[in-house]
Amino acid sequence: MKPRPLEPTTSWRDDGATKLCPICQHPFPAVGRGKYCGDSCRKKAWRMRHQSLAVPVVVPAPGVPRRSVTVYACQGCGARAVGVQRCEDCGSFMTRVGLGGECPACSEPVAVCELLDDALVVSGQPATSPTTAIPADRTRPSERGARR
After folding, report:
1. Which of 26, 1, 28 is CA-nearest to residue 17?
2. Quick check: helix, strand or coil at residue 131?
3. Helical segments of 24-128, H only
4. Rg (alpha carbons) of the chain, rounded to whole number
5. Residues near 84 by Cβ (< 8 Å), separated by ≥ 6?
6. How many CB atoms lie under 10 A from the CB of residue 80?
7. What is the pTM of this model?
8. 123 near 117, Cβ under 8 Å?
């Protein structure tokens, strides 16, 4: 085996340079692969990346019962209804999509959460179109506890 040539005496990294911390914008000496000036900024960046966004809460007006302004979807046939929990087509119980009403343009039942883009934030998937049923496993955690 041949002996390896000596390593170059110059460093490939620029250890004397400074970087700006993306959190506090203070310059700090660049050492290794470090991105942040200290543990506090590193932890703050992790918390910012992993925070859950607040879901807007839609509440009906006082005195209005929730059932009459709730959109339900049948898992069996895909039918939707406002204020009716039992499917008129197949007779099974429907799952709750959310508060809403009939669309003024097409008269189809539409939930408020489908009009807003919060379904994208909460589930990681785009909001479904008003003509498709939402499976029970895609309900929001805030709605799971409220099903009574």
Report:
1. 28
2. coil
3. 39-50, 112-115, 118-123
4. 27
5. 72, 94
6. 23
7. 0.41
8. no
Strand pairing partners for 98? 71
Q: What pLDDT is recorded for position 147?
A: 47
Burial 85-117 (b: 16+ CB within 10 A, else e): eebeeeeeebbbbbbbeeeeeeeebbbbbbeee
Q: Length of the chain in residues, anyone?
A: 148
> Distances from the Cα of 55 to the Cαs of 110, 141, 143, in angstroms?
18, 10, 11
Tokens 């040539």 found at: 5
**pLDDT tens across 76-98, in order?**
898 999 999 899 888 899 999 88
Question: Checking phi first, is residue 144 left (phi over 0); if not, alpha (psi -120 to 50) or beta?
Answer: alpha
Q: Cα(111)–Cα(82) distance, rounded to whole angstroms?
A: 9
